[in-house]
What we know:
Strand order of the largest sheet: 1-2-3-6-7
Order of helices and strands: HHHHEEEHEEHEHEHH
Distance between the termini: 37 Å
Radius of gyration: 19 Å
Helix content: 40-55%
Largest sheet: 5 strands, mixed
Strand content: 15-25%
Number of strands: 7
Amino acid sequence: MAMEISPAAQAVLDKIARPSERSKQRKIGPSEIGNPCERCLAERLLESARTCPPDTREESIASWIGTAGHAAIERLEIPGFSHEMRVTVGEIEGIGTITGSVDLYSWHDKQIIDLKFSSTKRINSIARAFTTLEDGTVLFDNDSPVVGTLQQYYVQQMLYGLGVENEGAPVETVSLLMIPRDATIANFETGVTELRFKFDKATADAMLVRAQEVLDWALAHPDDLDELESYPHCYKCNRERTKLCI
């Protein structure tokens, strides 16, 4: 049986549940373009093309916690870094300009840092889902159940790198700074994991081309999206498939 919430507590919950600017975003962003599930990518691209807002009820409380963490770090004003750097990634015909916000950019190191807040267990799983060769090539472990998440993160960072370069700033490396939200302040640094990659513009360009091709197909076959390939580990396709917003 659900416990009754007091009016005072409900006032707090109403604030938490209010859609954030990120959750109200109508146009697809860099964090979504790398979705390995072609079926879900097509749906999100069509939402953008038709200006249908995504359902904010699908946003997890973990996303809200992550947004709060980003805001706290932004207030630190770290010297030599740009915080929440707005960038233009490129164009998708039928949707328009794709923009994003880079968490942190180090001018000295020419490095993008994207913050991710997750559990220690999940961080460790993601860190084991790839191998980097000496030339910087990244090999993903396709047998890992979290490899899709890692691939999406990876593409997101490459798109951010492209966006920063479009703003006239050089990019050499991109990294995911993964912070365990189940650690304490005293020991959290031992659980922090940084996944650092060489910036690969070719990947960013290829993902924009892929998104354009998927959108073009979806616009021509809006009633046939189920023909597109679903990613094997896609939660939405396996358990939560919903109707397209038209």
